[in-house]
Design goal:
Number of strands of chain A: 6
Largest sheet of chain B: 3 strands, antiparallel
CATH architecture of chain A: 2-Layer Sandwich
Strand content of chain A: 5-15%
Shape of chain A: globular
Number of helices of chain B: 17
Number of strands of chain B: 5
CATH topology of chain A: Alpha-Beta Plaits
Strand content of chain B: 5-15%
Number of domains of chain A: 1
Structural class of chain B: mainly alpha
Shape of chain B: elongated
Strand order of the largest sheet of chain B: 1-2-3
CATH class of chain A: Alpha Beta
Distance between the termini of chain B: 40 Å
Structural class of chain A: alpha+beta
Order of helices and strands of chain B: HHHEEEHHHHHHHHHHHEHHEH
Number of domains of chain B: 3
Radius of gyration of chain B: 24 Å
Helix content of chain B: 55-70%
Oligomer: heterodimer
């Protein structure tokens, strides 16, 4: 190990010992746009609770759950994530029941519990990109939504309107035919469940 | 009459192989489940079709509904579920409780059965179940081979207490950083995860590199060095199994001082001098190699202190003869 690296590591360890709270807050730098699987605790609690066993990914029938290497920092190593553009969550809630630690809180696969307890993020429509807002009737996102008419509604020319109950599963972003996609999930890493 | 216990070592290798094979099979079963769920056999690539057909042939006798039924066995030795019974490694529970600074009882209870088994059987997980053990033992056989060829490999002895320090340091780091760090450095957790990555996600992750380093450490520095000196799980299991009920003891009247047990013990323990201690993982390699059946499992909470040289050996006979001469002289 080079001396500089050694010093940096030593300093880091010292700081961590002196100010554990500061280190806990600093180590999560949101740089990537990813979702945690449904039912996940708020990000800091989530990282402390997950044991990186990978069972959420192993039960996912849609193979949307992937695992971080070093892309999101050391603390996220081997933790599960979802990139909605690659593969959205179908809200089967199997991962929440497979999680042994409660890092993903168990949620029943029914409309009520899903709306109340899942907060992966929220869809947002970019009206400058959306075909329906440009006068070309589309409506694909509306038809892909598993919570149709609850989380998303369409108006004139199939223009999508995202509603409050949207849980951020990402199926709309996955299905959007516009490039770059006009509807995207804004991740909610606070995940405060009302 | 040879004791049946000398066959246990073969049974152990079968068990280790089965656990490893299961860890390889499970990701393929998961892929098969996802293919079934997608209802699109025609769209699979030839490779995926091969997986589908193989797994269908394997599971068809047992299930009509693979998509649901194959959820019965999931996970790895780090944490998994067997027919609805959730089981976790005690190290996972300890590390997670430290990281979260909180005890979540449903999760803690998943380690209950492993902990009870360890209290009774000692470090048996290390010898009989751990998927890394299979690879480490094969690696040790390779080292023995190199040694025979004249290369001085894996000769160093370190301090066994280092692993307890690793365990303590890991707990402190978990508490400070709020992350369960053991998952990244504990070989059985790494192996299950990496096999899953390699099969179902594509490519190995960071853990594979770490595991290769431990293999090299075992090969170049010290025999089974990681398990003996570094592994935090080994440390925890050693502590839990300190007063295990099932332990190997030497029958001094049968021992001929050949010392084969000491040579074969990969953990560098000293069965020949009755020194097993909490580090013994009940692997039964010494029972299998003993030519006179002097070593056997017994139900005792403690090792016997050194009983002297074996009664079938030269040292004991010489001492007896000397004693007899003394008695005649008196």
């Amino acid at each position: 190990m080079k001396r500089r690296e050694f010093c940096r590591t030593a300093a880091g360890t010292g700081l961590a010992a002196l100010f554990p709270g500061a280190v806990r807050a600093a180590r999560h730098r949101p740089s990537l746009r990813f979702l945690r699987p449904p039912g996940a605790l708020p990000e800091d609690e989530y990282l402390a609770t997950c044991i990186r066993c990978g069972q959420c990914g192993e039960v996912c029938p849609n193979r949307c759950i992937k695992f971080f290497r070093f892309e999101n920092g050391l603390a996220s190593l081997d933790t599960p994530y979802i990139i909605p553009r690659e593969q959205g969550c179908i809200l089967c809630m199997k991962c929440t029941q497979a999680c042994p630690t409660g890092a993903l809180q168990p949620v029943e696969a029914q409309l009520g519990p899903i709306i109340n307890r899942v907060r992966m993020g929220k869809a947002r429509v970019d009206e400058n990109l959306c075909l329906s807002y440009q006068g070309k009737t589309c409506g694909v996102c509306y038809r892909a939504c598993p919570l149709q008419d609850v989380a998303i509604r369409v108006g004139r020319l199939e223009q999508p309107h995202v509603l409050e109950p949207c849980v951020g599963c990402g199926l709309c972003e996955r299905s959007c035919i516009q490039i770059p996609q006009a509807i995207r999930i804004i991740p909610d890493h606070e995940r405060r469940i009302a | 009459m040879k004791s049946w216990q000398r066959h246990l070592n073969k049974l152990r290798f079968v068990t280790l192989g089965l656990v490893f094979a299961l860890l390889v099979l499970l990701p393929f079963l998961h892929l098969y489940q996802t293919y079934v769920a997608a209802h699109a056999y025609d769209l699979l690539t030839p490779g995926e079709k091969l997986v589908y057909d193989t797994m269908e042939a394997l599971t068809a006798p047992f299930t009509d509904d693979p998509e649901q039924d194959l959820d019965a066995v999931k996970g790895t030795t780090w944490s998994g579920s067997l027919f609805g019974l959730k089981l976790s490694d005690p190290l996972a529970v300890l590390g997670q409780s430290a990281a979260a600074l909180d005890v979540s009882w449903p999760f803690v209870l998943t380690a209950l059965i492993p902990v009870l088994a360890t209290v009774l059987l000692g470090r048996f997980f290390c010898g009989w179940i751990c998927p890394a053990t299979l690879l480490y033992e094969l690696n040790d056989n390779f080292a023995a081979w190199l040694r025979k060829a004249g290369l001085p490999v894996a000769r160093r002895r370190l301090d066994r207490r280092v692993k307890y320090l690793v365990l303590a340091a890991g707990l402190v780091i978990s508490m400070v950083t709020g992350t369960a760090v053991f998952a990244a450095v504990y070989p059985p957790a790494i192996i299950g995860r990496e096999i899953y990555y390699a099969v179902a996600v594509g490519g190995f992750g960071a853990g594979a590199v770490f595991f290769l380093l431990t293999i090299l450490f075992d090969l170049m520095v010290s025999r089974r060095g990681f398990c003996r000196y570094v592994c935090p799980g080994g440390a925890l299991y050693s502590l839990l199994g300190r007063f295990r009920a099932l332990r190997i003891r030497r029958d001094v009247t049968q021992c001929n001082d050949c010392a084969k047990c000491n040579v074969v013990c990969q953990f560098g323990l000293d069965p020949w001098h009755d020194d097993f201690g909490q580090e013994c993982n009940n692997c039964t390699a010494c029972i299998a190699v003993c030519p006179t059946d002097a070593l056997a499992f017994t139900l005792h909470l403690k090792d016997i202190p050194f009983q002297g040289p074996g009664h079938l050996g030269h040292a004991y006979r010489r001492r007896q003869e000397a004693g007899a001469v003394h008695e005649e002289a008196a």
